[in-house]
Design goal:
heterodimer, A: alpha/beta, two-stranded antiparallel ribbon, disordered N terminus, B: Immunoglobulin-like, four-stranded mixed beta sheet, globular
Chain lengths: ~475, ~800
């Protein structure tokens, strides 16, 4: 429990922060440096207790492997060999590099890298209202339960009033210092049924903070139109244009003065840098990687996506969200984590080999390059799956060997940023049905992400109606650093 | 000795040349009627030149006799019944305060509502981040900011089977142990052991936790001293006092319990103990809140501005009179008129959404008539154009949320047509609102009925109606009384009840729906106790019509559109104003509340009156606004108005809206973009809904999705992705390179350098170039081998320049 006496007082009347927010919420500055500096100042003033705490501000960037669909925790990272067969399932548990940590036999390569990560085996929450993927994804990534449900029982599509996804908050609060994209989402959108992208947008922060969406298969050559100089405009010509524009603006000084708060020149300079420096574009270019590395990550959409994520982080991107590339709503032939219709065969043949290879490669590679020290890596889905086989928890029908949605207990992998490796955080009960110790709500996980980046999870934000909201209502898991 | 000290202190705070000639004390006398209640007074020094200076903090109070004493916080507390006086010395002057003390023998019984809830609110227990949160905190829930004392009382008494009180040993009650952090408390220490609040709580628990009598213990009126703050320069301070009045005539000084907040701390900030500190020149409002009562205190801070002289500018109509009056008072010098070319571009964009064409620019500049006359003629001409209808139909389409998703394809087009007709006919605004709100029948045959397809729930319909037509946001009051406003949860449901009988059923066509009046089962129930709520107007004191049960919406419209309605005309006048000045007189325009006061009340009142006097003629309002000098002012600031953004002393540049930008690029480059699913010649401003070209250029530049009627849905900020799109994106690149576009035409026609440059400037910036601009541009044209690509570069730079991207 993390509470420091006296601090709440400031939160409750929040004048210091309101003042800062009034300045920032003019929202004309967008990604400019001004609000960042103001924010840093406000943070230092508002959260002296966090500065210097273990893990606070330990990471510069985040890779979130978002395993949408809801992977079965029992069949991946929280095996229950002692449980009855209708819970245990078909897979055996295997010993890993770290004594005392067992994984499912589906994850042999990850077993060799377990010393670099912590498994949070007590992820848990009880959904408010809707019990489906979109609602859960929204909860996981924004920290808030969704409140608008359409008559069909599905969530409403993304709306400008939505709570912002974590990456958007981060790209606003911690804009990158290099000419790179702040927040990249790949290789496909978040989705369930007809509702696309819910929980994956900047919502009330405004589109300026939406992710750069690269919805292409990184395992194939990709196209980057706006980052690639147009054929007819070589760098020299673009530079000419840049100078012409500058000259024009400075010939109308009154207007230039009146527009100071828009920080237009900063945006233009950044845009030019992005296009001209090629740094952002290069980060997407996997041809620059040796074959050996590409093979190590696996020649799959997810595997090459993870490699691209590493390259982006290396270039200075703050937040990369790597979504699991398949959503098929229970189709047993496809590697979607939503394994209602069949669990074991697809996991064994389709999903787990990809996940195992990719995650282990990512941890190993990041570690070897020294990147893991300053990057937070998280792999988690929107929920786990029902420990008992063939039962319905969500109203969906399930095959006898299928597993249904299970938000009450599941596992998240977390690594980097000085988090102790080879550890378990929290534990599930004998059947993986509920946390036995240290339950972790998705908001706690989000709070940890913000905290690791040096953002006070308790800070007040303002929505589109200028109403005060909490960044996230969770507590950072400071125990991860012990 | 004390006087000397006070004088020294004064000298360090105030400027030495200020000489106080007289002291004024507020209130002028004090009457104590119960033991234990402290009072404070404001001590103001009047200087020789008529300034008022707050001397409360340095004043010395000397009670004469034993009736009152001074406590350590500087409050006078009664000690003995009888008459007395207090000698007050400050700023080298001296005065007396008369005091009466009575009722010391009959202490007022301690009560939850009078004594305890103010403490819970003050120390933060009931705040939204603590136990006032929707779900409470750590298993303990109180109402947000204590708006529901009944609920809070029950929560304290009966949650946890009453374990919060230790009746045999009150001091060991959990209710005391928690906030004093004698046991672990997630919210930290809120109350000090033995403090005044601690004593009150202990006293209350010892007395058997009485609830009190709402008829005498609830605050009847809140008073704040001073009622208005006026500082002649930044750096001064003003003590504020909050007084609660009760029905029995008693008054309590609640300065320490009331919540004081400034709406602009960078102008006027509040320090502890309700001391207002002037930070810089400007205006602010202090909102004082105590037990569900609110008061707003306007604050004006001037600066000395030596050398300022008011230079009168011409006044074109009453708008300029009101603006000048304010500017003169604040010592702000307005900017002169914008040039004819600047005016033409600005007014064309604001009235029709399009910049002027080259012929119009040349003709207007060549017109020998005097500037005011030809500007007036141009305004009339622009308001008669079909693009005027396009432009205003787009705004109303946004506000009324005309979109295909909610209305279906046919419904959307029908609604669009109704909106366009209403604008083309200049339908009086009250009539337009009446048609919308009382609409029934098929959404195809009676398009205004689409209003209710977007807002199918009575609560949503009410929220939208109040925000759109009254500028009032009720949304907070759905779950709790509005935290910063007088609106209560009861208001919310009483207003929603006006829409409860609206029914929607499927029509004959698959896309069609029928709006009808339900005859039964339409009651709105209060979430707290499930009782049926009857419709009631927001301000009941108005000569409100009776509400017949079967014609609720008609009654609402009657009330709404009455010229006496304090919101209706003001809200639309303010909204329309904001379209021309980039901000409302009240801003945001749809967040009208006491704590968000207008920057110029007489101006807003005059606009609203003018509008009702002219039968809600919106075109009259628009014409009045654009013919004012204030609208036609230059954006160039002078040394006296550079920092002013709220008093309309100069123009503020506004980024072109998504649609304006798209259409302006098209017009300037002579290109022809194609939008899917609409006739081929449609401009962006004519598009029927946000589904056309979704996810593209328009959305990137902030086109609203029409999912809410909030003005905030349209964004006009600048962002990195936007800059990237303009620098390297396809929209501009393809428009520039259009094979039949402006550059191609000029190159093919073999236009000489000078003509080329002039045409590019006319197309992009709607003016002719200055001599230096000719030189620079011609040099650039001659520098490279490909004339077409050099010309494209020039046009590219012009279209990326501030002067193009902004309405200025």
């Amino acid at each position: 429990m993390l509470t420091i006496p006296g601090r709440r007082g400031r939160l409750c009347d929040c004048r210091t922060r309101r003042e800062f927010l009034t300045a920032g919420s003019v929202s004309l500055f967008g990604l400019s440096l001004a609000p960042f500096l103001a924010w840093q100042k406000a943070q230092a003033a508002a959260a002296p207790r966090l500065a210097g705490m273990k893990g606070f501000g330990a990471a510069k960037s985040v890779i979130l492997c978002f395993l949408q669909g809801g992977p079965s925790h029992l069949d991946i990272w929280d095996p229950k060999p002692e449980a009855p067969s209708n819970i245990r399932g078909e897979f055996k548990a295997i010993q890993t590099k770290v004594p005392g940590i067992w994984l499912s036999e589906t994850m042999p390569m990850l077993g060799e890298q377990v010393d670099k990560c912590t498994l949070i085996r007590s992820m848990s929450y009880t959904p408010e209202g809707l019990f489906n993927h979109t609602a859960a994804i929204y909860q996981m990534l924004t920290g808030y339960p969704p409140d608008k449900v359409s008559p069909s029982g599905q969530l409403e599509p993304p709306s400008p009033a939505d709570f912002p996804t974590a990456g958007s908050h981060i790209s606003k609060l911690k804009p990158p210092t290099e000419p790179v994209l702040p927040f990249v989402e790949l290789p496909r959108t978040l989705q369930e049924s007809g509702v696309i992208g819910k929980g994956g947008a900047a919502g009330f922060l405004g589109k300026a903070y939406d992710p750069y969406r690269l919805y292409q298969d990184p395992n194939k050559p990709i196209k980057l139109d706006d980052l690639t100089l147009r054929k007819e405009v070589p760098p020299e010509r673009l530079k000419d244009r840049f100078l012409l524009r500058k000259g024009l603006n400075s010939s109308m000084p009154d207007l230039e003065k009146a527009l100071k708060s828009y920080a237009l020149d900063e945006y233009y300079e950044k845009a030019f840098d992005l296009v001209l420096s090629g740094k952002a574009r290069d980060a997407f270019d996997l041809e620059k990687e040796p074959d050996k590395v590409r093979e190590r990550y696996g020649r799959t959409t997810f595997g090459q996506g993870a490699l691209m994520a590493r390259r982006l982080i290396e270039a200075g991107t703050r937040f990369v969200q790597l979504n699991w590339p398949a959503v098929a709503n229970g189709n047993p032939e496809v590697d979607s984590w939503d394994t209602h219709a069949a669990n074991f065969k697809p996991l064994k043949n389709l999903h787990c080999p990809v996940l195992d290879r990719t995650l282990s490669a990512l941890l190993e590679d990041m570690h070897q390059r020294g990147l893991l020290q300053e990057t937070l890596v998280v792999a988690v889905g929107e929920f786990g799956r029902s420990p008992r086989l063939g039962v319905s928890t969500s109203g969906n029908t399930n095959a006898p060997d299928g597993r249904d949605h299970w938000p009450y207990c599941y596992t998240a992998l977390i690594a980097g940023a000085g988090i102790s490796g080879g550890k378990l955080y929290g534990a599930s009960d004998q059947t993986g049905s509920s946390p036995k110790e240290n339950p972790v709500h998705p908001t706690d996980l989000l709070a940890t992400v913000y905290y690791t980046l040096g953002i006070d999870p308790d800070m007040e934000i303002r929505n589109h109606l200028n109403q005060p909201r909490e960044l996230v209502k969770g507590k950072p898991l400071v125990g991860l650093w012990s | 000795m004390h006087i000397l000290l006070a004088a020294l202190l004064l000298a360090s705070v105030q400027k030495p040349n200020v000489k106080v000639v007289k002291l004024v004390v507020e209130p002028p006398s004090l009457a104590f009627s119960a033991p234990g209640e402290g009072r404070k007074v404001l001590v103001t020094g009047l200087t020789g030149n008529g300034e008022k200076i707050d001397l409360t903090s340095t004043a010395r109070l000397q009670p004469v006799g034993e009736a009152v004493t001074l406590d350590k916080d500087g409050f006078l507390v009664p000690a003995k019944e009888g008459q007395a006086k207090v000698i007050i010395t400050a700023g080298g002057q001296r005065t007396e305060l008369a005091v009466t003390v009575s009722g010391l023998g009959q202490p007022r019984p301690v009560s939850f509502i009078r004594d305890v809830t103010p403490i819970l609110n003050r120390v933060g227990c009931t705040s939204g981040t603590c136990h006032g949160a929707a779900k409470g905190k750590n298993g303990f829930k109180l109402s947000l900011r204590g708006y529901d004392s009944d609920f809070d009382y029950r929560a304290l008494l009966y949650d946890m089977s009453g374990r919060r009180f230790n009746r045999s040993d009150p001091a060991r009650s959990l209710m005391l142990a928690k906030p004093t952090q004698q046991v672990a408390h997630g919210g930290g220490q809120r109350i000090e052991l033995g403090s005044r609040y601690y004593q009150t709580l202990l006293h209350w628990i010892s007395a058997g936790v009485p609830y009190g009598d709402p008829s005498t213990d609830k605050v009847q009126k809140l008073e704040v001293l001073p009622s208005e703050v006026f500082m002649t320069r930044p750096g001064l301070e003003q003590q504020m006092l909050a007084l609660a009045h009760y029905t029995d005539g008693s008054v309590r000084d609640v300065t320490r319990e009331a919540i004081f907040g400034s709406n602009t701390p960078s102008i006027a900030d509040l320090k502890p103990s309700a001391v207002l500190s002037g930070q810089r020149k400007g205006e602010a409002a202090v909102l004082v809140r105590y037990e569900g009562k609110f008061i707003t205190v306007p604050v004006t801070i001037l600066d000395p501005r030596p050398g300022f002289q008011w230079t009168a500018q011409p006044q074109y109509n009453y708008i300029d009179q009101h603006i000048d009056a304010k500017l003169q008072r604040l010592k702000i010098r307005p900017s002169p008129l914008a040039t004819d070319a600047e005016f033409l571009r600005r007014v064309s964009l604001d009235l029709t959404g399009l910049p002027p064409r080259r012929e119009e620019v040349l003709a207007f500049l060549a017109d020998p008539a005097d500037s005011r006359t030809k500007r007036g003629r141009m305004i009339d001409r622009l308001m008669g154009r079909p693009e005027f209808v396009d432009h205003w139909a787009l705004k109303w389409g946004d506000l009324l949320q005309s979109n295909r998703k909610a209305l279906g394809d046919k419904g959307m087009w029908a609604f669009r047509e109704w909106i366009r007709k209403s604008i083309a006919q200049n339908k009086p605004y009250d009539k337009m609102v009446r048609e919308l709100l009382t609409s029934n029948g098929s959404t195809f045959e009676n398009p205004p009925a689409n209003y209710f397809r977007v807002t199918r729930d009575p609560k949503v319909a009410m929220e939208k109606t109040t925000q759109l037509f009254l500028g009032v946001r009720m949304v907070c009051a759905q779950c709790h009384d509005h935290p910063f406003e007088q609106w209560t949860q009861n208001n919310y449901y009483e207003l929603a009840a006006f829409f409860s009988a609206v029914g929607i059923k499927p029509g004959i066509d698959s896309d069609e729906e029928i709006v009808y009046e339900k005859r039964e089962n339409y009651d709105v129930k209060h979430p707290k106790d499930g009782r049926v709520v009857s419709p009631r107007f927001l301000i009941a004191s108005l000569d409100a019509p009776r509400v017949p049960t079967d014609r609720r919406r008609e009654a609402l419209v009657e009330w709404l559109t009455s010229p006496k309605n304090p919101f209706f005309a003001r809200a639309i006048a303010n909204r329309v104003w904001s379209y021309f000045f980039g901000r409302g007189i009240i801003d945001p325009v749809d967040d009208i509340r006491a704590s968000n006061p207008p920057s110029n009340e007489p101006l807003l009142a005059a606009l609203a009156k003018d509008l009702t006097d002219h039968g809600y003629d919106l075109q009259h309002l628009i014409r009045t606004i654009v013919t004012s000098r204030a609208y036609q002012a230059s954006l160039a600031a002078n040394e006296w108005n550079a920092g002013d953004e709220t008093n309309f002393s100069h123009a503020l540049p506004r980024r072109l809206s998504a649609e304006e930008l798209m259409d302006a690029i098209t017009l300037a480059t002579g290109s022809r973009p194609k939008f899917p699913e609409v006739p081929p010649d449609f401009r962006a401003e004519q598009l029927p809904g946000p589904h056309v070209g979704v996810g593209g250029f328009l959305d990137l530049f902030g086109r609203p999705a029409r999912e809410s009627s909030c003005e905030c849905e349209r964004r006009s900020d600048m962002s990195l992705p936007q800059a990237m799109n303009l620098v390297n994106g396809p929209t501009l690149a393809e428009a520039l390179a259009h094979p039949k576009g402006l550059v191609a035409q000029l190159v093919v026609a073999g236009a000489p350098d000078r003509e080329m440059v002039e045409e590019l400037y006319l197309a992009a910036l709607n003016r002719t170039p200055e001599p230096k601009e000719y030189d620079t541009a011609i040099t650039y044209l001659q520098k490279g081998p490909s004339r077409a690509s050099r010309a494209q570069d020039l046009l590219w730079a012009l279209l990326n320049s501030n002067a193009f991207l902004f309405n200025r």
